[in-house]
Design brief:
Blueprint lengths: L4 H8 L5 H14 L11 E6 H5 L9 E14 L5 H10 L7 H16 L3 E3 L4 E3 L8 E17 L2 E11 L5 E4 L1 H14 L4 H17 L10 H9 L10 H14 L25 H16 L3
Helix pairs in contact: 1-7, 7-8, 7-10
Length: 297
């Protein structure tokens, strides 16, 4: 016995977005105030995560917001030729401001508005919800450029991402806008089946956690999106039941070493990277999914 199409349809539905949109707007109103200590800097405020990617389910709560400092940027030049590196260094100007200063000023601005509801954590700044405002995580980051080619400011090519640092000094680099754009492209290529399928797997994960079949934290939503991004487009469609069978069969037989993150900048599975999934967690989740499906939920 497998899970009914009716249940899969229920699980495919997007969660409430009204309160999340209101939370995002409230935080933006605070973060973008003219009297903010960083107001004269160039920065971009945007959503990431489930609400930003339209893959949120009813159980999702936190709203994830990125504050990306664009007045300066950090780089990866490892793929440039020696001549391109020399060209880059010729045109480079030292920064007079840093991500560390920006993060401190973002914290100051949030505390001014929300007081003790603001709790700086190792990655993001947690802002506890109140009334109609949901809990939120605000991530101060800086623009990051992974260069592939550099001749001059008018002749350059790079992947645009974000970076920030953990308390132990580890730099974390990720590409949320590429992730979002690629997932949207996948959704369009699959006839709008991709994002509902992500939501189904997130609900299946939650059900397995509730039943004690899966430990919490094994399968973060970001990695579920990345996992499904690798499944060929032709496996999506006709019905949710047919899609799940094809998706699970493909994932079960795929070459794990070829799997990419949805941003296409990293392999999905890596033993140490802070922005990739551990293979043993992927295998645990996939095995649990297949058993859950075969048992009918």
């Amino acid at each position: 016995m497998t899970i009914s199409e009716m249940q899969l349809d229920i699980w495919s539905r997007q969660g409430s977005i009204t309160q999340s949109a209101a939370t995002y707007q409230a935080l933006r109103n605070v973060l973008d105030r003219d009297d903010a200590p960083y107001a004269q800097r160039s920065y971009l405020t945007f959503l990431q995560g489930s609400y930003g990617n339209d893959t949120n389910i009813y159980a999702d709560s936190d709203v994830d917001i990125v504050m990306r400092l664009d007045s300066i940027f950090y780089t990866d030049l490892s793929e440039l030729s020696a001549s391109d590196k020399a060209n880059y260094e010729t045109n480079r100007s030292p920064a007079q401001y840093s991500w560390t200063e920006f993060r401190k000023e973002v914290i100051t601005q949030l505390i001014k508005a929300y007081g003790s509801a603001v709790q700086p954590r190792s990655k993001a700044i947690y802002v506890e919800g109140n009334g109609g405002r949901r809990d939120a995580d605000v991530l101060p980051a800086a623009e990051f450029r992974r260069y592939f080619h550099y001749v001059s400011p008018s002749d350059q090519h790079y992947a645009e991402g974000i970076c920030f640092w953990l308390p132990n000094g580890t730099q974390v680099v990720n590409y949320p806008k590429l992730h979002s754009a690629n997932c949207t492209g996948k959704h369009q290529r699959t006839g709008s089946w991709f994002k509902p399928t992500v939501r189904i797997l997130k609900n299946m994960r939650n059900a397995m956690v509730n039943q004690g079949r899966l430990a919490e934290g094994i399968a973060p939503s970001y990695f579920i999106e990345g996992m499904l991004y690798n499944v060929p487009d032709a496996n999506f469609g006709s019905s949710y039941r047919a899609t799940l069978v094809k998706v699970l069969n493909w994932l079960n037989g795929c070459n794990r070493a070829d799997l990419e993150c949805a941003n296409e900048q990293y392999f999905l599975l890596h033993p140490t990277s802070p922005v990739t999934w551990r293979r043993e967690q992927f295998e645990t989740f996939l095995t649990a999914l297949i058993n859950f499906w075969n048992d009918g939920g």
